[in-house]
């Protein structure tokens, strides 16, 4: 089968077929996830937490992202149907246009198919410039982990009416600027549903309810490998005697059927 592409994801949204996104940081798990049917592999700066043992994503560098992207690419190439690979640009690596373009160049040349940025419509000049140069972009809104110190912790975003309306406006403006994908983290389920209906590009959710076009989880979370606090939006799929690839396949199946996320995994306004 042909590899998953942006056109594949656009067709899924148009056909109201949900798709799955899962983090990957190495070749072995990348191949297992793609072979289980995961459509998008996110090389996330969450590697700072789950691979490096950091307290946040802030210490992650572009060089770290390049290294892990290269590893994921090698595993993905061996999959029966290669996934689309999306790589985070880490903290303070896109503070201005020149810096953002250089960071994107590095991870794209490492094999990524798309870059992910955290922010809102202040990113529009960079989104437009990347688009002109052939770099697809996903913009991450809501709870953006790189801004944890500004937020004062990991808090649900968009509960107040004015902030919800602002987030919706940001998403519409970002689509107009050429953004290819949106990711909403820890926003009220009703707001995520409104945004998903208001834009024609696919919307990925994490802690954003069941009405987005796709779901994403950190691999270690959905395998029950996290120690300590477990976020409300997480479900352990490595249960009932499953092996790792069966857990990945169960995640894909539940996302596509709408079984996951359930109401208990989302947030109210």
From TrEMBL:
3-methyl-2-oxobutanoate binds at residues 45-46, 88, 116. PANTHER family: 3-METHYL-2-OXOBUTANOATE HYDROXYMETHYLTRANSFERASE. Pathway: Cofactor biosynthesis; (R)-pantothenate biosynthesis; (R)-pantoate from 3-methyl-2-oxobutanoate: step 1/2. It comes from Thalassolituus pacificus. It is an enzyme of class 2 (transferase). InterPro entries: Pantoate_hydroxy_MeTrfase (IPR003700), Pyrv/PenolPyrv_kinase-like_dom (IPR015813), Pyrv_kinase-like_dom_sf (IPR040442). SUPFAM superfamilies: Phosphoenolpyruvate/pyruvate domain. It catalyses: (6R)-5,10-methylene-5,6,7,8-tetrahydrofolate + 3-methyl-2-oxobutanoate + H2O = 2-dehydropantoate + (6S)-5,6,7,8-tetrahydrofolate. Its EC number is 2.1.2.11. GO terms for cellular component: cytoplasm. It is found in: Cytoplasm. Its main location: cytoplasm. Homodecamer; pentamer of dimers. Catalyzes the reversible reaction in which hydroxymethyl group from 5,10-methylenetetrahydrofolate is transferred onto alpha-ketoisovalerate to form ketopantoate. The keyword Chaperone does not apply. The keyword Transcription regulation does not apply. This is 3-methyl-2-oxobutanoate hydroxymethyltransferase. Belongs to the PanB family. The active site is at residue 185. Mg(2+) binds at residues 45, 88, 118. GO terms for biological process: pantothenate biosynthetic process. Binds 1 Mg(2+) ion per subunit. GO terms for molecular function: 3-methyl-2-oxobutanoate hydroxymethyltransferase activity; magnesium ion binding. Keywords: Cytoplasm, Magnesium, Metal-binding, Pantothenate biosynthesis, Transferase.
């Amino acid at each position: 089968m042909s590899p998953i592409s942006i056109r594949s994801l656009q067709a899924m949204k148009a056909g109201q077929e949900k798709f799955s996104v899962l983090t990957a940081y190495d070749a072995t798990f990348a191949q297992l996830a793609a072979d289980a049917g995961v459509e998008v592999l996110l090389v996330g700066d969450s590697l700072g937490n789950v691979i490096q043992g950091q307290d946040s994503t802030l210490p992650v560098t572009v060089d770290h992202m390049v290294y892990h992207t290269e590893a994921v690419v090698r595993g993905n190439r061996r999959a029966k149907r290669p996934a689309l690979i999306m790589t985070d640009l880490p903290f303070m690596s896109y503070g201005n246009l020149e810096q953002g373009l250089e960071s994107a160049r590095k991870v794209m040349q490492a094999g990524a198919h798309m870059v992910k940025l955290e922010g809102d419509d202040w990113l529009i000049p960079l989104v437009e410039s990347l688009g002109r140069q052939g770099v697809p972009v996903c913009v991450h809104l809501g709870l953006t982990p790189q801004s944890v110190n500004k937020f004062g912790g990991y808090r649900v975003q968009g509960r107040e009416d004015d902030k919800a309306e602002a987030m919706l406006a940001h998403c519409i403006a970002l689509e107009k600027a050429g953004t290819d994908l949106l990711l909403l983290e820890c926003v009220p389920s009703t707001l995520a549903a409104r945004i998903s209906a208001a834009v024609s590009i696919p919307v990925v959710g994490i802690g954003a309810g069941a009405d987005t076009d796709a779901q994403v989880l950190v691999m270690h979370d959905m395998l029950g490998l996290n120690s300590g606090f477990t976020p409300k939006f997480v479900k352990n799929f490595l249960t009932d005697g499953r092996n790792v690839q069966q857990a990945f396949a169960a995640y894909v199946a539940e996302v596509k059927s709408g079984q996951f996320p359930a109401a208990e995994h989302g947030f109210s306004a």
